[in-house]
Amino acid sequence: MIAVRPALTTHRTLLGVGIFIASESIFFLAIVLAYVAYRDAGLATAKATLDIGRTAIFSVALFGSSATMALAARAESGRWLAATIVLGAIFLLGQGSEYARLLGEGIGPGSALFGTTFFTLTGLHGLHVLAGLVTLAALLAANRRRRRAVHPVAWEAVGMYWHFVDAVWVVVFSVVYVGTLL
Amino acid sequence: MTAAVPLWVRRPAAERVGWLRTVDHKEIGVLYIGMGIAFFALGGLEALLLRAQLATPEEQLVDPETFNQAFTVHGVTMILLAVVPLLVGFANYMVPLMIGAPDVAFPRLNALSFWLSLVGGIVLYFSFLAGGAPDTGWFSYAPLSERAFAPGTGVDYYILGLAVNGAGTIIGAINLAVTILLMRCPGMAISRVPLFVWMTLITSVLILGAYPALTAALVMLLVDRQLGGHFFDPAGGGQAVLWQHLFWFFGHPEVYIMVLPAMGMISEVIPVFSRKPIFGYSFVAGSSVAIAFLSFAVWAHHMFAVGLGDTENAIFSVTSMLIAIPTGVKIFNWIATMIGGRLRMTSAMLFAVGFIAMFVIGGLSGVSLAVVPIDQAVTDSYYVVAHLHYVLFGGTMLGIFAGAYYWFPKMTGRLLSERLGRWHFWLTFAGFNLTFLPQHWLGAVGMPRRVFTYAASTGWGPLNLVSTIGAAILAVAMVVFFVNLARSLRSGEIAGDDPWDAFTLEWATTSPPPPENFTTTPAVTGRRPLWDRKHPELRDAR
């Protein structure tokens, strides 16, 4: 039995989150544009150092977490929520290992234009994933403690944000990683 | 002396949580306005310091470094810490009342936005104690703002302060937008909300579109300064002009963020004191939507001197001039509202009419600056300083004063003194024009902005002295206003619920309004609900 799902345009929390996401999109757009503007200068380094195959696997974890989030929100399921957190954490660990490898090769935010734009763009996205994980964990904890006290809209709202973080990665992965194949 | 009237809110003593913990939209509105007034005073003192230094040629009052810090902090303060909080404060207080709502959509987020805005301001001012304020101008162009040229911590405080303040402003805009979209009382269609509410909605959209670009630029600058990045560092392959694009993509909508709510204020004041409905309600609202769209397509008119190319300059010149059309529409709306009306020239109305006159001057000098060759001749000169102050002081601040005289009785239960109000207006009007009108000529003959002094042989001395005298008169006018505020708070004439025989819902409740604003949810059948209630036989058709 699926309860009546609150609509984006009539529920104030969902509308608020929707507007927030729209505003965040402009923030990321500016950072992505900066990356694209400087792409040519860093393309050789990107091609030589980025590990697209490995990152693609970790990206699948993040994309998959959107599916588990949708299942979690539909059934208000703590288990699917926990799965979402695990997948999100796997993605972050993957990012961490990529960072460690690049830094080990001497590529950092200050090394050259590629490092500056790469670490800024992926780092800001990573921070958003981290914020998402904190929110998911808070929802999970609230759901464990007092399930009835969690408003159904909380699942929708947290889910919207998580899907957004995922969607941003679609763009970032395409521009940064798939872009090295062009 | 009159009977005691409780100030701000009539929450029972047991339910009061104090200013630090309040989530009441009216109390948060008052906090915002208090913050705006405090920073307005600070920014004003900085301006007086600048004018004192420039009063005569080769003055030695302050050293160049102090001067640079003063004009930088003056600009940031007035724009982000005075004007925006004042406007957001009035919106916070008035919008729920005007649409018949008990509070904003997210009261706790509302408190968060205020405190973030305030902390951002405090962080910026902390730079004075931490080794020197930012000295790179309010738009902090790269590469000047890069570590190599601004090695102190001033620019870092600028980055952090603006980012935190901006986060508060963005959250506030989300709150106001959702409130307006979803919390209107029965019958309050979006085509019936007061124009101040319309302007607040459009301003919120502008904030949501523009501020993230500033935040992004600030993050990039922080990466450059703290992590050795190269976003705006030409030596490392970056492009300094990227900062200008991002900053002005924020910076120009910011102008409308500051002026549209003030236009909303005078769109409330002028009809009430002309005893007529606003002329062309939908044109005022629609033209503002047009301004909002255009405002995202004009940013490079701040960059005509950069060398973007003739095609780019021509495009941005045209879009900038187009903005004059929806702006002009509104000027005619206000004038047509007054024509044939029974005008009551109260202090609020004086400031509203003053807004129209001064804003027309600022608007016209703006059109002249949209002409590329003129801009290239007077760019970075006092002509630009004159222009922007006619828009932001002659426009926005006069609008805010109109709103202050109009709404003070609702917020406090007491009227501001009309006698002091007249002094305030005429001193402001004289002081303002004396300060900024001569700057057009100074700019036209080549006096650059942001110079800490000038040689006597330039011949700029006399007009600068006039400008400084004007600033002193303006300071006296502000003192009169503050005295008026302080005295009226304690002993002003009791206002009653509806002292102006007004039209809109905020006057349908007590002054000051009770905690949830209305005892019964209002029902609305037109654009002037209170007028309809007072004159059922003359009810508006819509």
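qc> DSSP finds 15 helices and no strands in chain B.
qc> done
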